């Protein structure tokens, strides 16, 4: 249930501090790409036997992504908007599927609602890409995060209640 709180807080931050949140996410991803590039190089050197070339290629791609995100975070935010839109569409489809898998649990309707809203938000983000204004993207993503946090909290409560009920029966 702590993860539901984290997702909820991220959604609130995305809405309250839209540009700061977006640029900070781009910068953090830039550093993550840089560290991942270093990790690939180290792994390639350690593994040896011809794998270094492939890992160096991946590290090079990661370095290019890192430089793009760290040098120009606003461009990174624009590109991240498209990636986030695609991720939201995939998440929406997965959550709708999850609803049908978990439909016997109490409060599972929130997973369906979350899936449909997330799918619509993803379609909206992708349909308006490249964004004319970067301000709308954090609001859409923040709303999706808040709804995901709420649905995860309610599903966690329902699963916990079902486990307590099962223990009481046995």
Describe the fold and architecture:
- This protein has one domain.
- The two termini are 25 Å apart.
- It has 6 helices and no strands.
- Helices cover 87% and strands 0% of the residues.
- The chain is mostly helical.
- It is globular.
List keywords for this structure.
about 170 residues, mainly alpha, 6 helices, about 85% helix, about 0% strand, globular
Topology:
Layout: H1 2-16, H2 18-47, H3 51-71, H4 73-101, H5 109-127, H6 136-169
Helix pairs in contact: 1-2, 1-6, 2-3, 2-4, 2-6, 3-4, 4-5, 5-6
Largest sheet: none
Integer-rounded radius of gyration: 20 Å
Order of helices and strands: HHHHHH
Number of strands: 0
Distance between the termini: 25 Å
Give the count of helical stretches. 6
**How would you state the average pLDDT, rounded?**
79
The portion of residues assigned to helices is over 70%
What share of residues are in beta strands?
Answer: under 5%
Query: What structural class is derived from the secondary structure elements?
Result: mainly alpha
| Poorly predicted parts | none
For the record, the count of structural domains works out to 1
So what's the overall shape? globular
């Amino acid at each position: 249930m702590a993860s539901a709180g984290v997702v909820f807080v991220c959604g609130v931050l995305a809405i309250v501090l839209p540009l700061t949140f977006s640029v900070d996410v781009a910068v953090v991803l830039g550093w993550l790409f840089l560290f991942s590039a270093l990790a690939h190089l180290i792994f390639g050197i350690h593994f040896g036997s011809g794998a270094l070339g492939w890992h160096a290629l991946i590290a090079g791609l990661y370095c290019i992504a890192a430089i793009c995100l760290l040098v120009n975070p606003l461009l990174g935010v624009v590109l991240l908007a498209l990636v986030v839109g695609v991720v939201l569409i995939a998440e929406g489809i997965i959550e709708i599927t999850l609803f049908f898998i978990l439909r016997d649990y109490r409060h599972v309707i929130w997973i369906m609602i979350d899936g449909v809203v997330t799918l619509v938000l993803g379609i909206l983000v992708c349909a308006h890409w490249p964004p004319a204004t970067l301000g709308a993207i954090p609001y859409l993503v923040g709303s999706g995060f808040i709804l995901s946090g709420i649905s995860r909290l309610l599903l966690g409560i329902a699963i916990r209640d079902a486990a307590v009920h099962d223990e009481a029966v046995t």
